[in-house]
Amino acid sequence: MINEPTIILSGTDPDLPQNVPPGLARYTSMRDMAKGGSAVLRAGFDPITGRTVAVKMLLPEKRLDRREQRRILREARVTAQLQHPNTVPVYDIGSDSEQGIYFVMKRISGENLFEILKRIAQGDQDTIDAFPMQRRLDIVVGACQALAYAHARGVIHRDVKPENIWVGNFGEVILLDWGVAKVWGQADDNVPLNRSVLTTEETETQQLKTLTGGGQRPGTPLYMSPEQVSGSRGIDERSDIFSAGVTLYETLAIREPFRGADINETFDNIQNKEILPPSERSPDRNIPKLADEVVMKALQKRPGNRYQFMRDFIEAIQAIA
């Protein structure tokens, strides 16, 4: 868990520094926070504003990759334009002569929802007490509020999952990672997934530990809508509703609805398998029947049978007692 930095007098009183260097040289005390497959997130200090920030940039081996450059720049610009309480503020976007494209965000404290659910699955009583069902529902609603705002602005997230929902130490909920977002009006780069080209090594790198411990689970593929799996070019906000529905199911049942033995089986489950409602999957968690109805409607295979707008889905979640 990341703690909130303390405000100290020395960060508020000094005069503005002279001859501020350009690019990333402006930021001091840089240290790694997290690394992904193509980018690194670092914490740093901005002497101009006197605040600690988070800086995202490409890994050295990806800095000259045009596809990765476009992706991080899209993420930066989409995130910067989605100014909502459930998105992270972007302070700066630039290209450093040594580090390449980067963007600077508010540094937020807390942890992602997946880590919380994992501890609940492991029976950690402190986490169970801190995050009862109603609190977990509120977290999902917060992420969905960001999605509703994004949809109104013409943006589809396309990667909604607990790992991308940040839960702050002071009650804030932030939906992160807009790197694969689709902006209405752009060409849809969603293409059919050729399962045969997924090698064992690629499969393993795309998987994360299961909530229940032992084995592996698909990460992003587990939350794809049927139309994402099939490569439909008609992806719209109802795809995010499906992914949010998977997240809601997992948040209630502390189990993944579509997880198969491998990615191929998971994709088949998403497209074809009729799953048990959360209350039947996890009968010991006292999940109300209304929650079953809400989840199962969001997880309909056909987009036309789901909630048609994120606001309707939000209202349905909020009605769960």
UniProtKB/TrEMBL annotation:
Q: Which PROSITE patterns match?
A: PROTEIN_KINASE_DOM
Name the source's superkingdom. Bacteria
Tell me which EC number(s) this protein carries: 2.7.11.1
Keyword field contains Cell inner membrane:
no
Keywords, alphabetical: ATP-binding, Kinase, Nucleotide-binding, Transferase
Coiled coil (UniProt feature)? none
Domain Protein kinase spans what residues?
27-320
GO terms assigned for molecular function: ATP binding; protein serine/threonine kinase activity
InterPro entries in the record: Kinase-like_dom_sf, Prot_kinase_dom
The answer, when asked if Transmembrane helix is one of the entry's keywords, is: no
- Which Pfam family is one of this chain's hits? Pkinase
**Protein name as catalogued:** Serine/threonine-protein kinase PknD
